[in-house]
Amino acid sequence: MSRTTRLFAGLGLTLSMGACGQDMSLERADDATPGENDTFTVAAPPSLRLDVLPPYNQTDGALMNQSFIAQADEGPLRLEMSTPTRVTGGLTGYDATPQTLIEVPGEVVRVIGRLDAWVPGTIIGASVPTDDSGRFDLSLVPNDGYVLAWVPESPSDLPLVVAVDQSISGRTMDLSRYLDYGVPFVGRVTDADGAPVQGLPVALVEPNTGVTGVTVFTDEGGRYALRTNPGEWIVRVGSSAVLGVPVQEIFVDVPDAGAFVPVQYGDLTSDHLVDGEIVNLAGETVRGVIVRFVSRSLDDTPDGHLISEADTSSNGRFSVRVQPGEYDVYLLPAANSGYSPARLPEPVRFEAGRSDLGVMTLRPQVTATGTLVNSEGLPLANAQVRAKESDFEGNVFETVTDELGNFSVTVSEGALVWTFTPSADSLAAVTHLTLTADELTEQDIITLYEGEVVEGQVVWDDEPVSFGSIELRDEDDRLYGRTLTDDTGRFSFRVDWR
User: Is the pLDDT reported for residue 233 higher than 70?
Assistant: First the structure.
């Protein structure tokens, strides 16, 4: 047996692989001449993410959720859980109120805010608010790949701080942070006539991590004032909660002296209304349908993005305010309404004034049927059949097969991601397919092959972690199964990667 230890962001992952009996397919590179070069290419197996959720009744909370990375062909896995690190500290900073580009330092004070900590691409992480004295206390899984974000709330005009690839280790750590005075980041928001726009939310976003700082609102003069550290930032103006006003995100490279960033909008004073009516194939009006307008381009606010939506009333009609421009239009009924969501086949352009989309028809949901069998053609009873919309709202539809492996489920039209999960006593593998309901029904019989086995053991301090929950996902974040470790900490999945 050969043993290999792989480190994933600070986590030890010990893999035991048999030295023989492995079926590996090797191919010579296309441009290689026999005898000239011994380079071979090997198709890379899928990358796996195993999320381990320890049981609440084990170790009295001494373990936390952890993620491990492996390859599909790496044999039995030994997942070694880590004892969490206790993290404490406090936030401090200047109490200052910037109104101009002139810096007016204040006194050092305790800061109320929060600490966010997470490892990208995993379930590892936590967030904790400070108490009234600016102190925080939390536990984190040891790891070398953390993103840490100290986000102030009060005083609200202090800069947030983000650090990447940070290491958390040991029994305890102090992550106290002094939020420096920073530099001014101020500006003014105006409309097409140069008039100030009051009451719009403004926040700074760290572009690489998406961490968002405190939100301020423009005053009666359209002015806003924040503080930040020099570097690259995104200023986000507007919110989907403010109906009819586009959201703008502007990239800014802030110099050491600070920045003045004016933000311009188009005409925000006129009501540009869009009306319409939703009916079914029988011509009957349909209520409770969300009609969503997603801008592709806006005439008066080129840097803006607008999402507006309205519900149809009892008479099937809707009216919504938008800005002139080009939009994709979505019709989104409830998942249990019996109707399929739809998107208008072409983007729609709206000019200033009032527009009427007329009568739009929703098609009913459809029924998908089939039979699940194993590689020997035997029916798979009690298998879970799950379909998720690949577009729209991502609604999910589920059923189970009967004793003959048959299933029937009502789903939306359009592309669906199907997941077939056989019962635990079956040798068949979890399988994913992306098909419409009609395409699936045409197949009639869906064969779930034995696939490959992913197995291993979860341990902590050389002791098994019993009855912990494990979720197995691939590099596209598709879920291939959930299981529990047994009393020896062992687990097993059977998956088909096709």
Answer: yes
